[in-house]
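pls design
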């Protein structure tokens, strides 16, 4: 296979930008392997404390040559995706003993649900829950009791947070273990239709609630292709899953055997053997580029324009939006899953799923197939499909054709010739836009601005009929420093309604939209953010704003002299309550979205 020239060029750019950081990172993890805290160096009293919580494994643990795996779990039973992890640790301990190793729950990490907190104060903790998860993962692994780790997490901030923390222990072999999506319920398109009817006052709260419960009805991840399921696609392309583990449903024999295999693989890639695969070497520049490619090819979540740079920096790698922009121009869109189509992830899986996408992109030279992975057979295994045959886990070659051309396609017959992410820049700053679900005649919107400082004010104006016109809705002071950068998911239905009414509508914000944002053009993550003195603070009601995804520009059509002379609007007072005040340190220390929107990364110098 010959690499696509632009993929090779972008990878070289990432390697060059990362040279010094990556060198320092690799030196750090090698020092940790050779001289860091581990079980043979712990005192007897320290070891006794570490062994005291277990009876059945204590004798095996005393042999320091026998691998002990730390399980870091995001289990809770309020979050459907993570409720599936309830029995995993006890099962994994049994499988570990069968593999000749031991396992302990090293620690738990928080796992909040954006679906519960959307539009409410708790959402202002969401982004920094990722950094809290990273810190919690570091605490869990800090004891020096483990020679490897199993990371149990699946949803929006949990996977990035687990990896950000785990990569600081990059000398340990690690496997990401997903839980799988819930089975299909109410189709996503119908759910969106009821939401829009409710936004217009044409459906009751009871009707809306019934539709939502029919959509989100059981254990497992939500079935739309938002941030959680985009996480799983990326983990496959980075070689951190057992191949094909992303979308096997919870409670199935296949899911159980994939998890058993994860424990087996940890036993085989430990540092006492001859196949040592530390996670800090698995996650290299090529793996990060692979993650960006599959995100683009599948129309994945815009949240990963923040999360993937943050993950990369945790491994000493510099990835920025220019890399996404360049890749997007050559990576074809070969998947249509809601909100970029009507299918859900179960239909995607049935049509070929991540293995089909990875095989097709690899054939086209659009993925690095020589990366180090946790899989015994290397990266090629991620283009095969797991199944249970004669009560055993096997991997089969996929058919040449897609199982459903309306859901996933071959590279030579894509839905679109590019990936659908673009960068915008101009006198309003630098922003991202996802156009894979936006009709082409709406890639350029030029209209008067209506300026807001919170999403409730937008909803109130919509209900009052004040937005029934061509309009660019500007929602500022929504960045990481201002209020923790909550997703502005509740803006999707009213903006969608305005667009359905025939108005030309766009959103410009320094905040985030949902990972499932779709048909309305949205210039998001605008940097520098308004709270830090960014130019969104200069916009006034009535200014003509041009959002141009064709030319890649984001401009206020205001004479330069007038623009330069304008005062910045004052930032709203910082909110209190729902724990927001104790996250102030993270807000104040956060870097810009393109660098990962993280106080941890800013403070560590990564």
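designed seq:
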């Amino acid at each position: 296979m010959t690499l696509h020239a632009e993929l090779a060029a972008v990878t070289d750019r990432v390697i060059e930008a990362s040279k010094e950081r990556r060198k320092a990172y690799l030196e750090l993890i090698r020092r940790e392997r050779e001289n860091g805290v581990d079980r043979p160096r712990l005192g007897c009293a320290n070891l006794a404390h570490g062994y005291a919580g277990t009876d059945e494994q204590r004798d095996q643990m005393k042999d320091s040559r026998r691998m002990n795996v730390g399980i870091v779990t995001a289990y809770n039973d309020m979050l459907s995706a993570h409720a599936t992890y309830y029995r995993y640790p006890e099962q994994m301990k049994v499988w570990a003993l069968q593999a000749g190793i031991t396992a302990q729950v090293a620690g738990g990490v928080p796992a909040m649900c954006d679906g519960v907190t959307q539009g409410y104060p708790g959402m202002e903790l969401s982004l920094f829950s990722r950094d809290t998860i990273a810190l919690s993962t570091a605490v869990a692994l800090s004891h020096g009791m483990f020679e490897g780790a199993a990371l149990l997490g699946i949803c929006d901030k949990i996977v990035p947070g687990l990896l950000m923390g785990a990569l600081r222990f990059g000398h340990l072999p690690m496997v990401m273990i997903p839980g799988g999506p819930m089975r299909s319920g109410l189709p996503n398109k119908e759910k969106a239709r009821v939401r829009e009817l409710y936004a217009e006052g044409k459906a009751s709260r009871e009707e809306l609630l019934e539709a939502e419960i029919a959509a989100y009805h059981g254990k497992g991840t939500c079935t739309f292709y938002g941030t959680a399921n985009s996480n799983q696609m990326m983990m496959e392309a980075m070689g951190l899953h057992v191949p094909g583990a992303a979308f096997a449903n919870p409670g199935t024999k296949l899911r159980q055997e994939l998890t058993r295999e994860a424990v087996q693989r940890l036993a085989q890639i430990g540092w006492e053997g001859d196949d040592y695969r530390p996670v800090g070497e698995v996650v290299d520049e090529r793996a990060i580029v692979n993650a960006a490619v599959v995100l683009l090819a599948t129309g994945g979540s815009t949240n990963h324009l923040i999360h993937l740079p943050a993950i990369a920096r945790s491994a000493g790698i510099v990835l920025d939006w220019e890399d996404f922009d360049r890749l997007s121009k050559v990576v074809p869109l070969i998947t249509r899953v809601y909100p970029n189509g009507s299918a859900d992830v179960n239909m995607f899986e049935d049509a070929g799923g991540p293995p089909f996408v990875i095989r097709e992109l690899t054939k086209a030279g659009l993925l690095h197939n020589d990366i180090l992975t946790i899989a015994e057979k290397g990266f090629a295994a991620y283009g095969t499909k797991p199944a249970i045959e004669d009560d055993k886990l096997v991997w089969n070659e996929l058919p040449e054709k897609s199982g459903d051309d309306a859901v996933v396609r071959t590279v030579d017959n894509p839905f679109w010739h590019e990936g659908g992410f673009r960068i915008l820049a101009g006198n309003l700053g630098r922003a991202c836009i996802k156009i894979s679900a936006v009709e082409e005649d709406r890639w350029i919107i030029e209209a008067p601005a209506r300026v807001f400082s919170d999403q409730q004010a937008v909803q109130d104006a919509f209900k009052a009929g004040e937005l029934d016109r061509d309009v660019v809705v500007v929602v500022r002071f929504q960045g990481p420093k201002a209020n923790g950068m909550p997703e502005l998911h509740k803006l999707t239905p009213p903006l969608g309604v305005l667009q359905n009414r025939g108005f030309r509508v766009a959103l410009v914000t320094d905040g985030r939209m949902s990972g499932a944002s779709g048909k309305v053009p949205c210039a998001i993550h605008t940097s520098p953010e308004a709270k830090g003195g960014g130019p969104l603070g200069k916009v006034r009601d009535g200014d003509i704003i041009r959002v141009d995804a064709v030319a890649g520009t984001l401009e206020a059509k205001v004479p330069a002299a007038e623009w330069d002379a304008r005062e910045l609007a004052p930032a709203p007072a910082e909110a209190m309550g729902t724990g927001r005040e104790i996250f102030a340190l993270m807000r104040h220390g956060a870097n810009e979205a393109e660098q990962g929107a993280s106080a941890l990364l800013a403070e560590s110098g990564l």
